[in-house]
Amino acid sequence: MDLQGIWFFLWGLLWALFFMTDGFDFGIGILYPFLGKNDFEKRIMINSVGPLWNGNEVWLITAGGVTFAAFPLAYAIMFSSLYSGLMLILFALILRGVAFEFRGKIDKKIWRNFWDISIFAGSLVPAVLFGITFANIFKGLPIEQSGVSSGSFFDLLNFYGIIGGLLFLLLFLFHGSVWLAIKTDGELHERSKSTALVLWPFLLIIALCFLGASWFFTKLYDNYLANPILFFDILLTVAALFAARFFIKNDDFFKAWFSSAIVILGSVFFGIIGLYPNMLPSSINTDFSVTAYNAASSPLTLKIMLVVVIMFIPAVIAYQAWAYYIFRGKVTKEDLSYEESY
Amino acid sequence: MDIVLLSRLQFATATMFHFLFVPLTLGLSIMIAIMETRYAVTGDKIYLSMTKFWGKIFLINFGLGIVTGITLEFQFGTNWSRYSAFVGDIFGSLLAIEATAAFFLESTLIGIWIFGWRKLSPKAHAAVMWLIAGASTLSAVWIIIANSWMQHPVGYVLRNGRAELSDFSAVVFQKFAVLQFLHTISAAYIVSAFFVMGVSAYHLLKKQSITFFTRSFKIGLIFGLIFSIFTAIEGDMHGVHVSEVQPAKLAAMEAHWETARRAPLTLFAIPDEKNERNFVEFGAIPGLLSFLGYHDFNAEVKGLKDFPREERPPVLISLFSFRTMVGLGTLFILLTIIGWLRRNRLLESPLYLKAMVLSIPLPYVAIEAGWVLAEVGRQPWIVYGLMKTSDAVSPIASSQVLVSLIAFILIYGLLGITGFYLIIKNAVKNPARG
């Protein structure tokens, strides 16, 4: 595979890793007002992601940065075309991040309620909007010859886009509820487990709807039909989804979480594989599409960045794994007694 | 409204707000690492409570720095898409390296530091803070390299309608980047030093936790003294280099209209840009501008009139931001020298302590003014000599930018008020009372 091709799949991988890691803390943020019945349970919930969410969110920065470095044209067109949606996501992420930090600093009801809403909305908005955005990218944006997109934010809210939004929402809710089941015990644990089981059939139905709708609204299947071996990605994703349910039933939440992580990676790669070599297909004329080839940086930059990624990404994964290892086990009352905890 | 102006205002709002938090992160992380190491090595509990006290403030500040930093990386794409497509090959890779090599490390480790008090040994926990400080500094290195490339593009070729990388090490190790980095980082240490001294002075005036705050004050004082002097000397070197590569900036920051040898430095001037002269000016010191720009009293300094009108930076803003920066920088040297002379008699110097409390905001003003000079003084270029700011903006509706600019101002206003409220609340709390 050539340099541009390698970078195309690295680009997809970084976005997929972002959704896999930040996905569960988005999910917990959305479940937060519903599963946390009192301040204690709410604090257990945010502290279950407390040490990790910051590092998770950097995958977004890296995915964005790598888009800028390796495919400047794709970066330029993607973020200017999706201006309003992206701004909404950024504001949501700002409020959410500050909410984690600030909520516990003052013990007043109005103060905590405000930040509780910020955690919920700040998790819901990115989860749904990222789904809507990526579905619309799969489908194609109205990119003209000049590289300018003529669409508005409301054009994104079409049938296929909304299914994409729902799919991401359910993926993250499921992922989050399994994580919470790992990190809690007692009533909250039971509630997380049953939430995951309730969500599961909805996730399955929406995932199947998305696979079906993609046949009608996108050209994603072209690559699959040309190389049927690629259908393995879809099979693996669906199998992982069933495995997740099996492991939850058996109270094996670690394996369930890994299965759920594979479902997220597999779902993102379903789109990435189908897109190749397009990054932003044009719905007006395929000649106007932004591809890994017409958007790529110079070979020198791609090579330097490849060295950087090969050196640093394994290191990042290693020290993040260390962080996950340090904070293994359930969040207890003792953890909350800490003055630094959220 | 004009989309270029709106986009510039939005970027200025977002970066200047972000930069309210970055300098304290850079300096305070090192001071906390020093305090915590002392605790880990000696077991002296007072250093533990110092770590905890300053750590709390640090974390609020750090959190605000992180969340406001996230938007910046995406704003090149949203608002400056033509710029992004033109320079992504070089500029984009520098930002991506910053994210993978530095930002990841600090963001992951901060979680470990906050929640890891009982999970790590004191030495390992202190080491984590050193790593956070190191990663934050590294992060600054890459961002400054990227900005320096906009100030003085090197190591590129124009090919395929864009700037493509031709020499990576020329970009990374260029003189402009080294000087600008040293200037920014030492200025950030001044911000942190004055913050620590000011907060300590507040408590010393109230005569509470005296040992605790005398020690804190002295750590701040050492930082402040060293870096106030260093920044001035280094700033002079940086100024000479700027004169060489950005002569229009030098002329604008001095409102210097006519090309001349033995060019004077005017202490005070109000420029009249339309008529290419100064309304008023007094206190001209002959030859000083030539000396500042070129270290030679007889050097020729190119005047603004010798630059085409459309290639002159805004004179008034450049002039006042430069004077604010230099004037305050001089004051910081004076204040820290006085502090050094009175370091063992702090409690008997209430007037000095009061001055130090009131001085907390001044380094913030100075460092923001420095950035205003760097960025406004580069206009009308976004990449000096290569691309104009007006050609860099995204082809989007200006109404979109207006709405997001208002949202930025509202949300950042809210964050600024709550953030500084929490910082002040924690800063005035007497640590002895828990």
Describe this structure in words.
The complex is a heterodimer of chains A (342) and B (434). Chain A has a single domain, classed as Up-down Bundle (Formate dehydrogenase/DMSO reductase fold), CATH 1.20.1630. Chain A is built from 13 helices and two strands. Chain A has helices at residues 3-35, 39-49, 53-70, 72-81, 83-102, 109-139, 159-183, 186-217, 221-226, 231-249, 253-275, 299-326, 333-337; strands at residues 278-280, 290-291. In chain A, helix 1 crosses helix 11 (253-275) and helix 3 crosses helix 4 (72-81). Chain B has one domain (3-259, 302-433). Chain B has helices at 3-18, 22-42, 45-79, 81-115, 122-151, 168-172, 175-205, 210-245, 247-253, 288-294, 315-341, 350-358, 361-376, 398-428; strands at residues 156-159, 162-165, 260-261, 265-272, 277-285, 300-301, 381-383, 387-388. In chain B, helix 1 (3-18) packs parallel to helix 14, helix 2 (22-42) runs antiparallel to helix 5 and helix 3 runs antiparallel to helix 14 (398-428). Chain B is mainly α. Chain B is built from 14 helices and eight strands. The mean pLDDT of chain B is 92. At the A-B interface, helix 3, helix 4, helix 5 and helix 12 of A face helix 3, helix 4, strand 2 and helix 14 of B.
